[in-house]
Amino acid sequence: MTVTQASSTFQRILDHSSRADPYPLYAELRRTPVARQEDGGYIVSTYREITALLHDPHVSSDTDNLHDPGPSVAIRGDSPAFIGLDPPQHDRLRRMAMRYFGPPHSPTLIDDMRPDLNAIVTNLIDNLVSKDEIDVVDDFAYPFPVTVICHLLGVPREDEPRFHGWVEAIVALLDFNPATDPEDRMREGVRAREDLRAYLAELLESRRGRPPGNDLLSRLANDDGPDGRMTDEEIVSTANLLLIAGHETTVNLITNGALTLLRHPDVLERLRREPGMIVRTVEELLRYEPPVQLILWRAAYSDLTVAGTTIPKGSRITLVLASGNRDPSYFRDPDRFDPDRRDNQHLGFGGGVHLCFGAPLARLETQIALNELFRNLESPRLVADPPPYRQSAVLRGPRHLLVRQE
Amino acid sequence: MTSERSRETFRHDGRIVVVGASLAGLRAAEALRDEGFTGSLTLVGDEACEPYDRPPLSKQVLTGWVPADGTALPRRREIDAEWLLGVPASGLDLAGKRVELADGREVPFDRLLIATGVRARPWADRAEAALDGVFVVRTRDDSGRLWERLAAGPGRVLVIGAGFAGSEIASVCRERDIPVTVAETAEAPLVGALGSMVGSIAANLQRAHGVDLRCGVKVTRLEGDERGRVRRAHLSDGGTVDADVVVVALGGVRNTEWLRDSGLAAGVWGVACDSGCRAFDVNGLVTDDVFVAGDVARCPHPVYEYRFLSLEHWANAVEQAQVAAHNMVSSPTDRWPHLSMPAFWSMQFGVNIKSVGVPVLSDEVVVTQGSVEEHRFVAAYGYRGRVTAAVSFDNAKWLDHYRHLIETAAPFPPSCPTPDQPADMKPVPAHFPNSVIITQGATVVVTGYEPSERRVAFARPGG
Ligand SMILES: Cc1cc2nc3c(=O)[nH]c(=O)nc-3n(C[C@H](O)[C@H](O)[C@H](O)COP(=O)(O)OP(=O)(O)OC[C@H]3O[C@@H](n4cnc5c(N)ncnc54)[C@H](O)[C@@H]3O)c2cc1C
Fold this sequence. Notes:
The structure holds two protein chains of two kinds. Chain A is α+β, with helices and mostly antiparallel strands. Chain A has helices at 5-14, 23-30, 47-54, 72-76, 89-98, 109-112, 114-126, 136-141, 143-153, 160-174, 183-207, 216-222, 232-248, 250-263, 265-273, 278-288, 321-324, 359-376; strands at residues 34-36, 42-44, 59-60, 133-135, 295-300, 304-306, 309-311, 316-319, 381-382, 402-404. Chain A is globular, with a radius of gyration of 21 Å. The relative contact order of chain B is 0.12.
């Protein structure tokens, strides 16, 4: 029932050398769907078991419920955003943020952004078409979602150089391992977290009382909805979460998408003829190369049983979403990139009450980005395959993606 | 070997007729083609339009969010079928394998799928039912006409019956700021489906939204004015309600009249079938070539002690259609049982209500998550110490977990603490007005996920 060797598989997954292709290691993990590690944590790698846990009310997202929270507490800080909370606090804060982001109160917000998204993308691409070689990450996949999230939140775009460093340091904390990683990285991350919060608190102050603008920060600052108003701490936490998530995930989805399409010229060719196919293609990308590969920890709030294994209260549970997405007992021929797949219930956005808040935006951004990019590039080909990858095993994606065109 | 050959011939050149061209009929037709059936496919439907979706008819159509004719069902694939629309089937000749149509035509078949659903139960008094302003809501036309009437700003709407449809319609009225009275014979709304504990919560919800809710009363008579328009209703408690729109929401009547002389086990309860969707004849013998799916079907569910269940649920129609289609073209050893857990949703008074399992088959209920006062919670239903159903108010994302508890015959009440747990987790009696007493203790567990894999096994006591 418990196999300790799986923990070493997991260590190898975290190791940067497996970043380009972790999928064989995920297959190894799946031999033990629920595997206890030496440190008492559990790794869950199969589709059914992951979905069961995503919907299990005994699973908590609050570090308070971990026996051994480890370095994750440092990331959480004192006023966690809804991603680090359980119902009912989670539901309340998420609902309040959703008022300005999606249904039922703002059902058309995302769709109404279409022209803006197109304009931003066109603008970026205009600067690319004449170049022989481009970096899909730095020239395109990064600036695009950052511009969008700044616009949406009401964060000045020109401040990007300031907060970019902070965000990188915070992300570097996600899979911080005290045993192997330099302690500096932890200190830097914690400081970056404070700096980013201070920056956002200042921005919030500047929005207060003014006739509310259309950005989320202004509206949260001045809103009195049915749930009341968020405290300043809560607004800062929410903005912090959305800024980081809006920054760091879509970049990978777009880049992983470009890479995957360049590796599948047949699909790319079809897509150029049939742009409507992009919707299914992005869903398949979310399955095949999801930008968030794993949920590093959830906590067993009480003893719970999954696939015959009882996980004791307080245990750390890691959900390997990207492995569930390649589980052959759920997806037929899972290692094949197949946009025609029907009923593609991937785990690319997680699931349950924490299902990705920004999913509709990420979908639309990626659909537009990939269609426009490949409509405009002339016979693009990869300069290096595999490309160099970023450090994180959680938010996995290329650091650069160099592409040459004729 | 010959049977194998004849099955192959049937898959290539056979004739399948589907009667009832709505949700179950359309999905079954699509599934038949998915299964590789290349023979002739005929859909018979008495409604003249192409298949459409009904859930919006008491929700988005009445608020004006979606036009009545904007509810066509999305097509999942080409089905290459012959459509005989606008004409009802009037009879079935089992021996001669022919469906008779009301216009005198006859349609021969090798295999038949019955998917004729239910219709709205009309107001019992014909003359009163014919008054201008008296509505039922089952079809697209019903809903479109009611929408027009609501848009005209009636002085008051009376809804007769506080089941799901009636409650949803009352909710739309309040959303549109139209005064509404709801009359219900039971002690509270939704009790028939969800029992009195959740019913009392639904009653609070309605009153909090300004519904004039009258429970424990019957509407005895509708009164019209000299121009034939409804204007008043008389109640069994002696009271009256002045209303210019009356919506009769008293549930459905199964469309089985056309099968009266067919020799099938068809009646007010629907068409009885086995869990593989094969119809029973009047003797209780299972037939080989006649299948049933959707609201009109009545089929045994092993999880509920093999009771015959009639479910008027959207998802049930879809899933049963898939199983029926598979079994229609497969060998006897490759038949699937229809074992999916019943599930239902509703949207009313700003709350998303969802259920899984069969709440009626329970003796106790307990709130397991959330807060009843805030109208956001999950309640689990139990029967003799195992979980049989769950219902959520604005907490639907947890229901998969409860589905799993039901399928594994997990003990009731579910015990371990959860983060969002109510202070008081004491089970109370479930109380259903027409409660059926379950007498035998056949407890099974369901395994497998895909329709092709789902099977049951008896649960061993204590194991
Ligand atoms: C207003 C409303 C709201 C609903 N809301 C929800 C909801 O929120 N959630 C949920 O889960 N479910 C809901 N439902 C239930 C859901 O719509 C049904 O379960 C579903 O429509 C069943 O599909 P069906 O194909 O079995 O039957 P039907 O949709 O009833 O279709 C049967 C078809 O057969 C036709 N027919 C009948 N007799 C004959 C004949 N003799 N010859 C030819 N054709 C015939 C009928 O005219 C009809 O077109 C709602 C239903 C209504 C009416």
